[in-house]
Amino acid sequence: MKIKLFIHIGQPKTGSSAIQAFLNYNRENLTKNYKVLYPNFFEDDFGKGFQHNHELIFTNAKLNNDYSGCIETFKKCKIYCEQHKITKLVISSEGFGWEWWPELLRQIIDATDFDFKIVLYLRRQDYWIESAWKQWGHKIGEYHSIHDFLCKSQMNWNLVLKNWLAVFDSKDLIVRPFEKNVIGDDVVQDFFGIIGIQDKSGFKEPPDNNLNVNSGLSPEVVEILRICNYMNFKTDDNSLLDFMYASLSERFKKRNPFKGYGFLTIEEREKIVSKYEESNLEIAKIFFATERERLFLDTVKEIDEKHIFNGLTLENTIPIFVELLFHQFKEINMLKNKNLEFSKQLSNSFKHITHNISFSEVEMNELFFNVIIEHHLFDKKMKENDLLFKSSGNDPYFVFANVLPSRLVKAVQISIQAPEETVFQLFYSTEELPVFMPYYSITHSVSSVTSCLTLWLPKPMLIRYFRVDPGTLPGNYMINKLFIGF
Description:
Elements: E1 4-8, H1 16-25, H2 27-34, E2 36-37, H3 55-63, H4 68-83, E3 88-92, H5 101-112, E4 115-122, H6 125-135, H7 146-151, H8 157-165, E5 173-177, H9 180-183, H10 187-194, H11 210-213, E6 216-217, H12 219-227, H13 239-247, E7 253-254, H14 266-275, H15 277-288, H16 314-354, E8 359-361, H17 364-369, E9 371-375, E10 377-383, E11 386-391, E12 397-401, E13 408-417, E14 422-430, E15 441-446, E16 451-469, E17 475-485
Parallel strand pairs: 1-3, 1-4, 2-3, 4-5
Antiparallel strand pairs: 6-7, 8-17, 9-12, 10-11, 11-17, 12-16, 13-16, 13-17, 14-15, 14-16
């Protein structure tokens, strides 16, 4: 039997992050027990490790104007599936609107001979524009309200689908209206049903953060973020949004994707739905024939819009800032206590550690070519034995794999220079916790003078990946020594 390939193409704002997170955190379980591979292209073993989605393998191919490497990776992936008796392969990236993607996927499928289905969720335009506004529209300085954003947004899903139907047959696509009457309360369960898994109760739930859920924030919080959008360096900079999501209580979060945010009135919603009614009917005819007369069955009249957002007031703003301040107060106290505890542990074990450790040097050239993820970095280059790079913002970081993942890491030594005095932070991930979390990190001050740091782990650990946050400032950075202590 042919391997079945499911290609999840979005669209954005239809629960894609939740689907990707669930697949990512259950990768090994899916591979071993269900013969379903959600591949990690960062690893030689596609069935292990951590990769949220597959955007990079496709966008890098387009950026380099060379599809051959991407196609070869999928050929290797097919061999891996055959060797491990994998019957289903799942790929996910929110690339519904990429005009070039259908042709690349066509070449991959022709080269690998997968049996395939393309999975697409579509959201009604009035719901979509609200969700897009709260996620990225508010970050764009030229838009002062959702109405400005609405005027510049193209939401004719039929036009985008024509690009796909120029390359694939309509029978190749599974189109799912993002409505409760179709997918129920859980889009992840609906997607799992498509790939043949009817019960997801035995799987691991991903951590509740903005990357994994993209849950909404209240209209008041979104408006505060809009006013402060000058602090975002680009539309995919989620640092402010992540801060709000991590710091605020459930009172300021929106969990139900089938309820509006209150940015639009009933009349405005009706106008949007009417504008795209004809194109939505065309989609229904193509993919549902007589099975479903309209693409979206819910009506605007069914929406409960008792609380239309009318702007910020003292009453709806002060509680937000008090919660933020109180959260920071608790975080600072927690860090103080952890630092005291760690200092005691380090003091008691320092002599023992120093007599039972050997350092292995990571060559800067090796580090340069093995960075797998980077953020706010540009102009990265080698000069003699030094790794030089620049930061375009206040959150630079890069991720690299441990050179000896089978040995217990006790410490890391690094020689680093920053543009001026700032805070260096080293995150580390393990098999048990494959994500980067603040309490699995070590901080140290650095300056424009080369700082030689020795960073001791609380206990020896099997480390999979390191994330280096060299500072919190834009400007020039340099690393010229890196050792891992075992």
